[in-house]
Amino acid sequence: MDASTPHIDDLRPGTPQRTHLTQLCGSETRFRDRYQIMRALGRGGFGVTFLAKDVLLPHHPLCVIKQLCPKVANPVVFQRACQRFEREAKTLSQLGSHAQVPRLLDYFEQNGEFYLVQEYVRGRTLAKEVKLRGVFSEAEVKIFLQELLPVLIYIHQQQVIHRDIKPPNIIRCQDDGRLVLIDFGAVKEQFIKVDETTHRGATTHFVGTLGFAPPEQLSLRATYASDIFAIGVTSLYLLTGKPPMEFEYDIDTGEVKWQDAVQVSPYFAKVLDKMLKVSPRDRYQSADEVLRAIELEPYLDSLASCMSNHPLGPVEDEDLLYRGYLSPIVRTAIAIRRWRKRKLAAERRRKDSEMVIY
């Protein structure tokens, strides 16, 4: 958020080539008698973002002002941009004061222009972090997931789908190191009724980022699992430094062929693989499921040994599964035993392949 954009054109018909806030950059003139505009931070498809000081508050805290000024001439597209801009303000207000979501400070219209004021998060994006310090280790990516998944759980509990999770939209706060998820302009409310979802889908257009957005989102049918796919692709970027379009894809299934590009443990590879499934039905259905899977890994060996003093073989496990209801603990024990057996078998095969007979 520290990149300066000195000249930003506003291509909306009937408006000056430079926005009013652009003209105020660096001057002593205050916007709305309150905000001193310092500089432009950047521009997206539908708005320009500025860094400002709120001079009416003690210590003049920094804030971010977003001005709606889409580069479009089509009135229908412009109306959609207005709706998306308003939706971002409503969503930030709905999400309240969560530590990992920028707080909404103000939202208003002035002279026919729309503005959104929100908390300024001092720090740098994960995209810039990778460029500056290099790729993440497996342990660091797991920490990243453990830090970001809780905010995704919170957002989904509010029936909100972000739809544009990617490294440039995740900031590591300079003050305390927390991860903050930004840019809620692409969010979508999760409607319960099928007819409402269908109607809303027919009147919107794709919002997101190619490569990070899963196939169902491209078809305007985003679900909570769509955000999980985006976090999975983000994890690949952190591990490799490669954007998603640089990976190869299976021409038959559409799955990302990422396994040869990273070296991770077999268990974590399974977690990533499930996050990146093309079909949303095969993916984790909630961020809570992903978090539980990651937090369970350090305890797999101890859990497997304490579940039973007499481990059952695979045939006995199958018999149990078909006897009817099993408690979650029993099912977890069976799954852990199976996982350990496959792991031991894989290790034996690897050792056998490394043996050299003279």
Keywords summarizing the entry:
elongated, Phosphorylase Kinase, domain 1, disordered N terminus, 6-stranded antiparallel beta sheet, Transferase(Phosphotransferase), domain 1, 13 strands, 358 residues, 12 helices, 3-stranded antiparallel beta sheet, alpha+beta, 3 domains, 41% helix
Explained architecture:
The longest helix is centred in the last third of the chain and has 27 residues, at 328-354. The strands form four sheets. The protein has a six-stranded antiparallel β-sheet with strand order 1-2-3-4-6-5. Strands 7-9-10 form a three-stranded antiparallel β-sheet. It has twelve helices and 13 strands. The termini are far apart. The chain has helices at 20-24, 75-95, 126-133, 138-157, 194-202, 215-218, 224-240, 266-275, 287-296, 300-307, 314-321, 328-354; strands at residues 30-31, 35-43, 47-54, 62-68, 104-110, 113-119, 123-125, 160-161, 170-173, 179-181, 188-189, 248-249, 256-257. By secondary structure, the protein is of the alpha+beta class. The chain has three domains: 20-119, Phosphorylase Kinase, domain 1, CATH 3.30.200.20; 123-297, Transferase(Phosphotransferase), domain 1 (Orthogonal Bundle), CATH 1.10.510; 308-354.
